[in-house]
Amino acid sequence: MSAVDPVKLMKQQVGKAAADRVQSGSIVGLGTGSTTAFAIQFLGDRIKSGALTDIKGIPTSFQASVLAKQYGIPLTTLDEVDRIHIGIDGADEVDPQKNLIKGGGAAHTREKVVDSLAEQFIVVVDQSKIVDKLGSTFPVPVEVLPMAIAPVVKALEKLGGKPELRMGIKKDGPVITDQGNMVLDVTFSDIPNPPELEKTINNIPGVLENGIFVGMTDIVLIGEIKDGNPTVREM
Ligand SMILES: O=C[C@H](O)[C@H](O)[C@H](O)COP(=O)(O)O
């Protein structure tokens, strides 16, 4: 018998905990990534069982819309609704102020639009994502218009960053986002002021959006393994 992957167990547990917080009649922001995928799956299960009615999802990526269709979650768009009651999304890093780095799946531009509109924004992560300082384990993803890559690289280097063009896996050449742009992963030796860096990067012409999410998160649900059992802690 193959051993159960503990990280997968934590992600499953935390995804279920987030899906359980959704109430009937809600417009739900559907995040991107392997952790949110479980939340989407459990949301679909609740809809199928009849426990949850009148739900509409706003996807943050192609991946999220594919999963939502697969699990039977009706979708809508920001043109059709004037509010998002609850948003559920993953993160690559979470600091003690609940600021985030996102974009490990290159979806941070649409995620920031949807997550920022959610009246309650819930972040779902396993314990490995909790850090003391943003940037300590993960670079800052920056979505860039392809024609502006060279000047944006120079501008990011001037800010002290080390930008690296994100390359595809099972695809030659760079990762192309859902919007047709490229992603620079920028390593900073220190991010003393995340809100300032977020604004400064977004001010560079050619930058669409970066993966620093400041002051947006209401609740972080953290999947942990305690005494061999997966549990969920709230921050
Ligand atoms: O672009 C992708 C997103 O920001 C994800 O939410 C983030 O990378 C976390 O993904 P995962 O839950 O797969 O670690």
TrEMBL record:
SUPFAM superfamilies attached to this UniProt entry: D-ribose-5-phosphate isomerase (RpiA), lid domain, NagB/RpiA/CoA transferase-like
Record GO terms (molecular function): ribose-5-phosphate isomerase activity
Residues annotated as binding substrate: T32, G33, S34, T35, D89, G90, A91, D92, K102, G103, G104, G105, K129
UniProt subunit comment: Homodimer.
Descriptive protein name: Ribose-5-phosphate isomerase A
Catalytic activity: aldehydo-D-ribose 5-phosphate = D-ribulose 5-phosphate
Pfam families the UniProt entry points to: Rib_5-P_isom_A (PF06026)
Entry keyword Isomerase: yes
GO BP annotations, alphabetical order: D-ribose metabolic process; pentose-phosphate shunt, non-oxidative branch
Gene label: rpiA
Pathway as given in its UniProt record: Carbohydrate degradation; pentose phosphate pathway; D-ribose 5-phosphate from D-ribulose 5-phosphate (non-oxidative stage): step 1/1
Gene Ontology CC annotation, any one: cytosol
Cited function: Catalyzes the reversible conversion of ribose-5-phosphate to ribulose 5-phosphate.
Classification via NCBIfam families: PRK00702.1 (NF001924), rpiA (TIGR00021)
